[in-house]
Amino acid sequence: MHTPTKQELRQKVLTLLRKQKEEERSAKSLVILDKLLKSLEFRRALTVLFYAAFDGEVDTFEMMQRAQQLGKRIGLPYIVRKEKRMIPTVVESIEEDLAIGPYGVRQPREASREKTLSVDELDLVIVPGVAFDRHNHRLGRGQGYYDRFLKGLSARTPTIGLAFDFQIVDHLPLQEEHDVPVSSVLVN
Q1: Is the pLDDT of residue 89 over 90?
Q2: Distance (Å, rounded) from C-alpha 131 to C-alpha 175?
Q3: DSSP letters of 61-126?
Q4: Does domain 24-187 fall into CATH 3.30.160.250?
Q5: Which of 3, 81, 158, 174, by CA, is between 20 and 30 Å from 110?
Q6: Helices H, strands E: what count in the chain?
Q7: pLDDT tens by residue, 32-88
Q8: Contact, 74 vs 68, CB < 8 A?
Q9: CB neighbour list of residue 19: distance below 8 Å, 6 or more residues apart
């Protein structure tokens, strides 16, 4: 049997994400939100780095609002494209502080020094993925931003992937040594 390459699997899952009906995506995202709110890692966290969902991903905007209502500090990655890195940046207002960044993803308008979060300040990192396997390895979009970022996190910082059921596969194509698994994956 043909094992798909990373690129084939990425294309297949991205197509499924894009084809999913918006009301289905919303309903499934709310179930995952509920799982997140109940998780010990989330309940303990004071500062949470989210990702800005786009292109059919599990919705994180409702999660960010709920986290703020619970008194948590939230952040989003600010992408520095020419350095291929992301800077965790505090977001105070989801409506006012965001702009469209590289790759069409919403991000903080600026990463000023006073808004930058150090990795030590992060109590939880919510991680996007195109696909995850049963051992919490992830397949990203192929740019390596999250793999590089996760490598710099303390092993004590929990990382949670969010996925719809069709994003979970038994095995991902061969892992490369820079691929960093997440602590757990919340699925619907």
Answers
A1: yes
A2: 13
A3: HHHHHHHHHTT-EEEEEEEEGGGTEEEEEE-S-TTTSEEE-GGG-EEES---GGGBPPGGG-SEEE
A4: no
A5: 158
A6: 5, 11
A7: 999 999 999 999 999 999 999 999 999 999 999 999 999 999 999 999 999 999 999
A8: yes
A9: 56
